[in-house]
Target: Archaemetzincin
Amino acid sequence: MTYDRVYIRLAAAGDFDKKFLFDFQKELQNVLYDNGIKATCFYNNSGTIEVDKIPSGAYTSHIGKYNTHSLFSYGQTKREDSLKRLGQAAILLKVLVIVDVEIFKQGFAGLLFGEAEVGKDIAIISTAPLENHFKSTFLIKERALKEALHELGHTLGLDHCKNPGCAMNISKDIYDIDEKKKKYCIDCLNILFRGHR
Model:
């Protein structure tokens, strides 16, 4: 990474409790810091938490889920807004879109917790598949933090990792997420900070 600080615009859409979002923001910033990443996480430039409606064009009725293509567009709009307001096109600004509905990616048939493209600016996570029958807010938040770290890792240049426990390891179900740590392994940290494997 060639920037001293990463700015992460959190773009929440759906029916979220603001306390959940406040705690998530604070803990995500701490988790990133614990991984050596100086990050400023924010919902908007005024410092308040805003929750949008999920973009109506994202819903795909014949699948019954929301397509990530539309959510990437939503995230890009939030990024452009933040760049205008921050007035600095040279800063490292990522957007994490957080939704509470089931999402899908064209051509992928499995359970999707999130999506991001390596080296790009937008990451998406969904809390819908992170729930269990207990509806534990703590457990959902812990899983969401791990998935956020995973998807943001992609935006920072990391690919999937085979090291068990690494945040960049692929999760096929919630049990895989529970096994992961809120930490990048040493190999992934080397890629982030030294640019080599």
User: Anything to note?
Assistant: The chain has one domain: 6-158. The mean pLDDT is 91. The first helix runs from residue 18 to 34.
